[in-house]
């Protein structure tokens, strides 16, 4: 289990699953797999009737968002975002990493009728970005790691808000209110986990969470928001313990399964000139827009706050952070599904663009992070040698 918690392993599994999905979709078994993905499964006696693909993206992915929300809450309470001074600089960089890719996408797709896909290149896959950092970033100073972690977390917050606001159609207010009541009950029950009735309480929480998810799904709000709300409502300490237990499940099963399902796309047999505008918008905005936006936002943030408390972030470090931010994968794939749900051909091209754009960002991040880490390792060796010479003298 400890191995699956590793950021490196999580990133590797996600990449392999996406590659297998794309390869499988373009082999003779591809049509059969897509039929399975489109097959519907209903829960008898309820209005819940989802395809296999939607059970994965709306159901299982809600557990991943629950884990993300728990981590967000912990960071705001005792972590890297527990004060305004700590949060403001990565927040400005994250904002740049949302605005610039969105503008590039809108510029490329202007007049095409597909402008509604602008949120797709704004997301960062926190698990994958940190995985790439873990693989290539040995020797990078803690201040840069903290900046990138806070940046990725804030980016997730923006993504959650975008999903909640822009991908909710004709919401049922009564069901939303009932879902909110479920969240409150879930939070109150979590306060009783320390009593002798904890097993009964845990069972009640599972039932409450399932009912809340169902209400949110049926309300028209994307069901992953239920996972976010439940994660934020749960008492922090037991929530962190639950996150610890769920992490191998999300890293080893849920995220790879979602990546495989989302990447199950037949490569269109068309000339590049015939690809829809969103393909090019995502392909360019994800790696280039994130790189420019985060780097520019990070540079602007260096002028915020007292000079002595500002972190020293070099241009090389900011570019590395920007390249890591361009690894969209999970959340970008989800946004692509939501944005082009009524246009499956465009959604398929969008999926390919997310995979290609993220892959470009991975290569750029690997180069920038490894060279940056090498620079810091050389500086550390030179400093140690100088200290030894001084001590010997």
UniProtKB/TrEMBL annotation:
Any one of the GO BP annotations: regulation of pH
Catalytic activity: Na(+)(in) + 2 H(+)(out) = Na(+)(out) + 2 H(+)(in)
Keyword Magnesium among record annotations: no
Keywords: Antiport, Cell membrane, Ion transport, Membrane, Sodium, Sodium transport, Transmembrane, Transmembrane helix, Transport
Domain of life: Bacteria
Regions that span the bilayer: 52-70, 91-112, 118-137, 144-167, 173-190, 221-239, 277-301, 313-335, 355-376
Location relative to the cell: Cell inner membrane; Cell membrane
Alphabetized Gene3D superfamilies for the sequence: Na+/H+ antiporter like domain
Single GO MF annotation: sodium:proton antiporter activity
Entry GO terms, CC: plasma membrane
Protein topology in the membrane: Multi-pass membrane protein
Pfam families for the chain: Na_H_antiport_1
Function: Na(+)/H(+) antiporter that extrudes sodium in exchange for external protons.
Similarity field: Belongs to the NhaA Na(+)/H(+) (TC 2.A.33) antiporter family.
Protein name: Na(+)/H(+) antiporter NhaA
Native species: Herbiconiux flava
């Amino acid at each position: 289990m400890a191995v699956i918690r590793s950021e490196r392993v999580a990133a590797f599994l996600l990449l392999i699953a996406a590659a297998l999905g794309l390869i499988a979709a373009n082999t003779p078994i591809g049509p059969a797999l897509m039929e399975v993905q489109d097959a519907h499964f209903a829960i008898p006696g309820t209005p819940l009737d989802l395809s296999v693909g939607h059970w994965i993206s709306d159901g299982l992915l809600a557990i991943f968002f629950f884990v993300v929300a728990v981590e967000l809450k912990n960071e705001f309470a005792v972590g890297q975002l527990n004060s305004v001074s700590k949060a403001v600089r990565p927040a400005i960089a994250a904002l740049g990493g949302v605005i610039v890719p969105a503008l590039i996408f809108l510029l490329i797709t202007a007049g095409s009728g597909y402008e509604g896909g602008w949120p797709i290149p704004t997301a960062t896959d926190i698990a994958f970005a940190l995985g790439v950092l873990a693989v290539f970033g040995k020797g990078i100073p803690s201040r840069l790691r903290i900046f990138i972690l806070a940046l990725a977390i804030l980016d997730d917050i923006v993504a959650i808000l975008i999903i909640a606001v822009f991908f909710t159609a004709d919401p049922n207010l009564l069901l939303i209110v009932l879902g909110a009541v479920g969240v409150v009950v879930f939070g109150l029950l979590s306060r009783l986990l320390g009593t002798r009735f904890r097993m009964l309480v845990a069972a009640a929480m599972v039932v409450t969470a399932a009912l809340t998810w169902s209400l949110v799904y049926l309300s028209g709000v994307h069901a992953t928001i239920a996972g976010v709300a439940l994660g934020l409502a749960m008492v922090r300490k037991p929530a962190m313990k639950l996150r610890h237990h769920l992490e191998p499940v999300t890293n080893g099963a849920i995220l790879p399964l979602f990546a495989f399902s989302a990447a199950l796309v037949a490569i269109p047999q068309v000339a590049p000139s015939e690809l829809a505008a969103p393909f090019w918008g995502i392909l360019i905005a994800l790696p280039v827009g994130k790189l420019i936006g985060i780097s520019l936002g990070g540079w602007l943030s260096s002028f915020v706050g007292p000079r002595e408390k500002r972190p020293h972030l070099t241009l090389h470090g900011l570019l590395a952070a920007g390249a890591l931010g361009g690894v969209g994968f999970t959340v970008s794939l989800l946004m692509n599904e939501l944005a082009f749900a009524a246009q499956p051909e465009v959604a398929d091209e969008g999926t390919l663009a997310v995979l290609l754009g993220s892959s470009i960002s991975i290569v750029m991040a690997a180069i920038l992070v490894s060279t940056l880490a090498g620079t810091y390792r050389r500086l550390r060796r030179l400093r140690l040698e100088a200290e030894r010479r001084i001590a010997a003298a």
